[in-house]
């Protein structure tokens, strides 16, 4: 009887430890902008805001354009919510002709990552949700880049 109690206790303890270690909840700490704050009549590039490393994009008619600043050894994460399945096209263009900046990774809504990419990428959107694209310097090529760049994103429905 004592052996059954100890075994039962071990099973319950193992279950709680397993459940605690597999808690994959994450908190999204991106800044949100009210739709009223966005001028929907223009597709201009959003201005560079205080050097942030995480930027929440608001897609207007499936498109967004954002200026950001790259700092040596840092990366910038663009997050956006996709509701319509289709093809994602993204690009980064540094202000300087030889600026060392690229699309490093894309994180899907299920937190699976893909990459690295180059200055442009295309990706099939297979599920709705929040996507994140990481832009960084290519550490295998060129000099570190400190300067502004423009990130362009377009979702073309199927």
From TrEMBL:
<protein>
    <recommendedName>
        <fullName>YtkA-like domain-containing protein</fullName>
    </recommendedName>
</protein>
<feature type="signal peptide">
    <location>
        <begin position="1"/>
        <end position="19"/>
    </location>
</feature>
<keyword id="KW-0732">Signal</keyword>
């Amino acid at each position: 009887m004592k052996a059954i109690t100890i075994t039962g206790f071990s099973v319950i303890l193992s279950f709680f430890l397993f459940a605690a270690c597999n808690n994959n909840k994450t908190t999204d700490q991106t800044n949100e902008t009210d739709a009223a704050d966005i001028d929907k009549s223009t597709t201009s590039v959003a201005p560079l805001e205080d050097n942030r490393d995480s930027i929440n994009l608001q897609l207007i008619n499936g498109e967004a354009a954002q200026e950001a600043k790259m700092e040596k050894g840092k990366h910038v994460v663009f997050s956006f919510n996709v509701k319509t399945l289709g093809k994602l096209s993204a690009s980064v263009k540094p202000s300087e002709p030889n600026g060392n900046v690229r699309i490093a990774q894309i994180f899907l809504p299920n937190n699976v990552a893909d990459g690295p990419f180059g200055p442009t990428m295309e990706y099939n959107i297979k599920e709705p949700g929040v996507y994140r694209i990481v832009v960084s310097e290519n550490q295998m090529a060129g000099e570190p880049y400190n300067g502004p760049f423009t990130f362009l994103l377009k979702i073309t429905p199927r």
